[in-house]
Amino acid sequence: MAKKTIKDVDLKDKKVLVRVDFNVPLKDGVITNDNRIVAALPTIKYVIDNGGKAILFSHLGRVKTEEDKAGKSLKPVAERLGELLGKPVTFVPETRGAELETAVNNMKDGDVLVFENTRFEDIDGKKESGNDAELGKYWASLGDVFVNDAFGTAHRAHASNVGIASTGIPTVAGFLMEKEIKFVGEAVTAPKRPFVAILGGAKVSDKIGVIENLISKADKILIGGGMTYTFYKAKGMNIGNSLVEEDKVALAKELIEKAGDKLILPIDSITAAEFSNDVPTEEHSGDVPDGQMGLDIGPETIALFAQALEGAKTVVWNGPMGVFEMSNFAKGTIGVCEAIANLADATTIIGGGDSAAAAIQLGFADKFTHISTGGGASLELLEGKELPGLAAINDK
Ligand code: ADP
Ligand code: MG
Known about the structure:
This protein is 34% helix and 17% strand. 50% of the residues are buried. It has two domains: 6-176, Rossmann fold, CATH 3.40.50; 191-382, Phosphoglycerate kinase, N-terminal domain (Rossmann fold). By secondary structure, it is of the alpha/beta class. It contains 14 helices and 17 strands. Strand 5 (90-92), helix 3 and strand 6 form a beta-alpha-beta unit. Magnesium ion binds at residues 352-354.
């Protein structure tokens, strides 16, 4: 998967189209978390430091109707970017047309421009999300080179990633994209061993493809979180009121058989009578008694997982071990974070929206080699699928 990166192209005097991921949370027009803008800075700075003109664009939320546009403009993002860069950023409130073309043609080397939410093109026939060829061609015509740095949408073929690239314009990865390809991509294609995968989160159904793909690739697969109880059920264990997907029990049974010793299930749970932080908790080995629901892995499981992780050289983790949002059920996720933090000389990757949030919220962000930002995209990469946005980047 050797892809060309931004370092492989000459940017001087070039109009550089950069597909960024500025899909930030907004409340009443105010950005509540600017992590994604901050994360895009290295690529943007590299373009301007190397004499390029940075033309930035991104989707923001879902836009299906004219009314959906309210509160989905990239204008506040352009303003925040200006503050972060300490220089003016031109915002064009259009996704195409004369105003945009004039603004682009007036750019000088080192200038930064942001144009409007690419999904505003979805109102009139899903042009962006449907990868409308004419739209991709139009955007490509605005620049000389295309840098795709939006890993989060790499599993989708949209006009703003695949459409532009398929016109034949030189297409390279930005720094964020490069990192994702390097860490997540290499973990599943060429892992240093032992390779331990940890899968948790709410549902088995979200992670079936990942478990199936990793059974043949990983040396061990540790299961935690809500999906535990569908596996318990498959083993004929009692699960009380724990989360279960009845229609996935048969599949869980198959996975248990297929994986053999590789698959390690929790041996104890922290339970409660309600999905709440305000009721007493109980600790149970194995079966969960009636009236209780399993909401975190227990201390014996933390120890078991820590032992299973010893000596690991590659760790991929997707899905929290418990309902970490409530302090009573965060210990399992913290325990696994600690075990990973203690590993010497291992490449450790955490991915998934909630898992990444958990690692950051619990104070372990700097303990991982890589925190993967793209939820769906990193899952599909872990499933061994080819991502259209990645495939469209030029090979080295
Ligand atoms: P990610 O976004 O990292 O892929 P998921 O979305 O699959 O993770 O799952 C995260 C959610 O799973 C969290 O909100 C967490 O509270 C929930 N969860 C974890 N363990 C349990 C459990 N035992 N019962 C119910 N929900 C759980
Ligand atoms: Mg999630």
